[in-house]
Amino acid sequence: MHILVVDDELSMREFLEVLLTRAGYQVTCAEGVKAAREVLGSAKVDLVITDMKLGASQSGMDVLRATRALPEPPEVIVITAFGTAASAVEAMRDGAYDYIGKPFDNEELKLLVQKALEKRSLRQENVSLREHLVPGAGVMGVGRSERMRAVWSLVEKVAPTRSTVLIHGESGTGKELIAKAIHLKSQRAGQPFLPVNCAALNEGVLESELFGHVKGAFTGATQERPGLLVHAGEGTVFLDEIGEVPLATQVKLLRVLQERKVKPVGSSAEIAFHARVVAATNRRLEAEVKAGRFREDLFYRLNVITLELPPLRERAGDIALLAEHFLERQRKELGRPGMRFSPEALAVLSSYSFPGNVRQLENIVERAATLADGDVLTLASLPPTLRGEAAPSTVAAAPSAEVPLGPGFSLEHHLDDAERRYLLAALSQAGGVKIRAAELLGLTFRSFRYRLAKHGLSDREDEA
User: Fold this and answer.
1) Angle between helices 203-211 and 247-259 (to 10 degrees)
2) Where is the Response regulatory domain (predicted)?
3) What is the mean pLDDT of residues 152-176?
């Protein structure tokens, strides 16, 4: 562990250096704020011990502020003489770990140092554990684009609050990862994070999932079950694809959010809940309100703070960094630490528009790493569509010369037939999973279901 000692008295610096070095720590000394900043900017420091008075014009508060500006700030212990204890307490309010008065007992100081370093180790371990428990959460911190820096800045601001957050972004931009980041950076981090895909559940099931139900409320309700809003406790409930919630359920959801109470299906009693609600959608809810598909009052209830996630094509400068991030994960999972992109492959990735956004890039990197014969991922490792080749299709397209444009030709019938074949192809490629098939076609789940019904494919799809 590396400790920085800041004191304007040479004798005190030398004393603390000897004391802490004998205790087994790496020690660096600085005589003032400027020298301390230089050390903090050039080396990893785990703990700073600073005197409160540093000459006539500077103080330990200046050192404390310098540490707070770092991405991973070290713990700070303030040494204070009699009469400056009030300033030390102020330093603790601003983020210092603790203070110790002069003259101090050597063993007391070493114990304080030990506890401060233990706290830092636990904090670092907690960050690592959260990333392990939430695979991919770290990807949202990758990138240098101004758009993503603005997103991350807003996450930092809203996370400690109780405000409802509405996340908007195209499919695959990482809306759930941002919701998890808000949860993990809040005081609710130790409580559950419970996501629900509103598009994947029909009206009755969605209400039961959110609000709970009592025994006998409907066929199959063999026991009482609390809804996610109650089950989450002081945690977070993430309502993904909120734009797909049926209007009848929107009315009930609005009342629940206003009253902070739920009425389980089949019950007349209300139960208070304390979870935070974060919602997400790939639709423009303002347009849905004007079209009469989304309640205006619910929109304003959810839209306390809006967070816009940019599509990957609008942050192209981050593609190479994201690709390296995903490749590092593959190195660990496949046990191949030498894997790397060729310059040509990285250039092609960086110039692609990625209609599937970050999720598509992650899948492409995983595919390339899995299928690569060697450690260098070349152009041949990338899908044909990225290399400018025609992608193989399960739907045979008729050559233009064979398009029947004679008497009786119907463009509408021709397009309907093509739409039907693409629906079947998507279902086949997705293994019959409707949500995945909708994503492959760039459709919302509701639109996909409508098109299936339109072509009489609902039963066939269910059998798949």
Assistant:
1) 10
2) 2-117
3) 90
